[in-house]
């Protein structure tokens, strides 16, 4: 039995050694390349899993049992120093992404009459992380794998990692060779249907009933039914007397097996087509009766997964625009980038010398100078399993000339800025980012001092503000993007200032980190943030403003509630307000016996307010909780400190009310594993009056 686990990139089921039943799980191929030629991917012949290594036949057409077998590194994502746990590399090292031979055959049917582009398929696989031998496309393989943490228990900005494959159920049944399907086509009986002349019912217009379809010839009515899904055709026949009187022709039942229809995954219908004319109705109902059969259900599941992959492959054929700066994989040197200072927005970018188990990976770098006399800006997006990502940016001058960065998809392109009068002067961007790339984008126009609407996804996604410098006169002169095979995963801007030139306009905290739920207003101050802990996942700084952005709600604060697990992990903060205002809540929503709600009453209407925030740590690097003090000399600890802990604690002052500063909320950092692991104060100068 192999000491490592790898799963099929199409169906998610484990690739077994050949001694395990059922046999189809042990028959696999590999999309592979070598370190010397990473941009020349190929499809292997059949491979075999062994205890300490995996081997394949390099020629896809080679079925000879005596053909040479070559060692291969499956699901490789680390291209730095070789760890001890992997087998000794071959020369040249061969590596790739495996899939069951049956799943490859189904993929070929999904793509028919086209053939999958092996290099695009390979680059697509390189663009997604690998969790415990499972390629994480962003879905659960239609129930074949489970997540480490349920989506509802994730902290803001987190992505759940895949955890394990599900061995029970229909997923282990052979989806390719299904004898029951062949028997349906070979032994079905002719349909007994009278396809003679059809007399359409006469419509009594005096009754008020009107059926406009009565004016159409019956041949056209039959064609309309043929192109409707089965459920819609049934609804139409119930709603229209004309359609209800038309018998469903043989062609209607055959069309149920067309691409995109309910039985498109029964691709055997194509080979039997000339032989079963007049029997499609009985074939349809026989196949429908087989739908619950485990092999057929598994075929349908894998077909849907393969169809989604084919859609991604179609998107990946888009040309990548911009000045080539080199392939980060090392295969394409490219010219050097300009020697300027860059401000970069990226999240969880995993370098090539580290294992790619989460986040994103840059495969290509591109750069363009921002043209002058800009009249419009367009943004292209791509949909990946229900999520929209930014894939490219296009500038248009008043002359009509266009300059593009990234993957421009005209059918998914939005005109974000249109300057009918004057010019677009690009100050920067607002970005919505998850760990896999840039989900949404908004433009800051320096001339209007306003930001545009969002394009892409932006709700409930961490955001950041990307500008080249804090000086309001600083505008974007260069734009650089890091891309994988589909989308934009990092974005950099520069105002043209040389990298060796000292800058006075150092970016503020507001423009340096990721925020949730939104980038804070510029008048807010963040106390205690100088020692803010960072994470490799680049989790956002969450804001919890209970007093209003101008302090107008401080007199309405009635209660502060903190949700704490049995192990003293802080999960959520909640503030109750008077005047019928809804409670303000931030953090992870989790209920049950393992969660305790700690409440602290605050008499805001009588003038009580929080004037001090302290955090307590153990051994200087492990956050335990925080303590607040009010102007009525009342204190509370969340969670309560145990007597034996006092001598071990390291206290840090996160906020003390000074002259002119008023606490209106908290900032905090949180992960699903650690809960809240750092906190500080959000305050305002009481003399500031801003328009929120």
From TrEMBL:
Highest taxon of the lineage: Eukaryota
InterPro entries xref list: DUF7600, F-box-like_dom_sf, F-box_dom
F-box domain segment(s): 210-256
UniProt cross-references to Pfam families, sorted A to Z: DUF7600, F-box
PROSITE patterns documented for this protein: FBOX
Protein name per UniProt: 9f6c6106-d147-4373-81a3-1db1f9af8db8
Organism lineage: Eukaryota, Fungi, Dikarya, Ascomycota, Pezizomycotina
């Amino acid at each position: 039995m192999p000491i490592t686990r790898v799963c099929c990139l199409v169906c998610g089921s484990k690739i077994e050694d050949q001694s395990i039943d059922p046999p189809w799980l042990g028959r696999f191929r590999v999309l592979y390349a070598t370190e010397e030629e990473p941009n020349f991917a190929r499809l292997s012949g059949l491979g075999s899993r062994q205890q300490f290594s995996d081997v394949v036949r390099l020629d896809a057409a080679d079925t000879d049992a005596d053909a040479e077998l070559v060692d291969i590194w499956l699901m490789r994502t680390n291209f730095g120093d070789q760890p001890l746990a992997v087998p000794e590399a071959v020369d040249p090292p061969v590596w790739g992404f495996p899939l069951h031979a049956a799943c490859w055959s189904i993929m070929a049917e999904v793509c028919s009459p086209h053939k999958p582009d092996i290099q695009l398929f390979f680059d697509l696989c390189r663009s997604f992380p690998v969790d415990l031998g499972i390629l994480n496309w962003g879905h659960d393989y239609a129930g074949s794998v489970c997540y480490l943490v349920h989506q509802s228990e994730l902290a803001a900005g987190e992505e759940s990692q895949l955890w394990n494959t599900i061995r029970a159920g229909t997923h282990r049944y052979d989806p390719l060779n299904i004898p029951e399907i062949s028997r349906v086509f070979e032994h079905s009986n002719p349909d007994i249907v009278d396809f003679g002349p059809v007399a359409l019912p006469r419509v009594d217009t005096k009754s008020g009933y009107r059926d406009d379809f009565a004016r159409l010839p019956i041949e056209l009515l039959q064609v309309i039914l043929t192109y409707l899904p089965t459920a819609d055709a049934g609804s139409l026949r119930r709603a229209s007397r004309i359609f209800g009187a038309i018998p469903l022709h043989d062609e209607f039942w055959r069309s149920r097996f067309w691409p995109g229809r309910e039985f498109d995954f029964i691709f055997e219908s194509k080979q039997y087509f000339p032989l079963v004319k007049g029997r499609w109705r009985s074939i349809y109902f026989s196949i429908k009766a087989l739908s619950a059969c485990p092999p057929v259900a598994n075929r349908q599941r894998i077909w849907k997964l393969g169809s989604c992959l084919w859609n991604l492959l179609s998107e990946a054929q888009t040309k990548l625009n911009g000045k080539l700066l080199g392939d980060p994989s090392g295969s394409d040197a490219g010219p050097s980038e300009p020697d300027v200072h860059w401000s970069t927005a990226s999240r969880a970018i995993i370098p090539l010398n580290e294992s790619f188990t989460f986040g994103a990976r840059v495969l290509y770098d591109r750069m363009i100078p921002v043209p002058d006399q800009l009249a419009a800006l367009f943004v292209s997006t791509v949909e990946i399993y229900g999520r929209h990502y930014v894939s490219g940016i296009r500038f248009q001058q008043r002359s009509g000339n266009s300059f593009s960065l990234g993957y421009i998809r005209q059918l998914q392109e939005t005109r974000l800025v249109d300057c009918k009068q004057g010019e677009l002067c690009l100050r920067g961007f607002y970005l919505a980012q998850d760990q896999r790339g840039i989900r949404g984008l908004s433009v800051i126009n320096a001339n209007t001092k306003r930001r545009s609407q969002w394009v892409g996804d932006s709700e409930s996604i961490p955001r950041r503000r990307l500008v080249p410098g804090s000086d309001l006169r600083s505008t974007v002169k260069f734009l650089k993007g890091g891309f994988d095979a589909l989308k934009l995963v990092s974005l950099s801007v520069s105002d043209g200032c040389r990298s060796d030139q000292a800058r006075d306009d150092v970016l503020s905290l507001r423009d340096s980190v990721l925020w949730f739920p939104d980038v804070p207003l510029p008048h807010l101050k963040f106390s205690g943030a100088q020692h803010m802990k960072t994470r490799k996942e680049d989790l956002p700084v969450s804001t919890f403003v209970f007093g209003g952005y101008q302090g107008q709600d401080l007199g309405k604060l009635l209660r502060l509630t903190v949700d704490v697990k049995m192990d003293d992990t802080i999960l959520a903060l909640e503030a109750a307000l008077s005047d019928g205002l809804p409670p303000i809540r931030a953090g992870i929503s989790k209920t049950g016996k393992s969660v305790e709600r700690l409440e602290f009453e605050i008499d805001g209407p009588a003038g009580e307010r929080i004037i001090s925030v302290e955090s307590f740590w153990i051994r200087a690097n492990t956050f335990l909780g925080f303590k607040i003090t009010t102007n009525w000399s009342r204190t509370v600890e969340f969670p309560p400190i145990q007597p034996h802990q006092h001598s071990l604690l390291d206290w840090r002052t996160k906020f003390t009310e000074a002259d002119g500063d008023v606490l209106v909320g908290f900032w905090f950092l949180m992960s699903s594993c650690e809960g809240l692991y750092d906190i500080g104060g959000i305050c305002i100068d009481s003399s500031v009056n801003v328009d929120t």
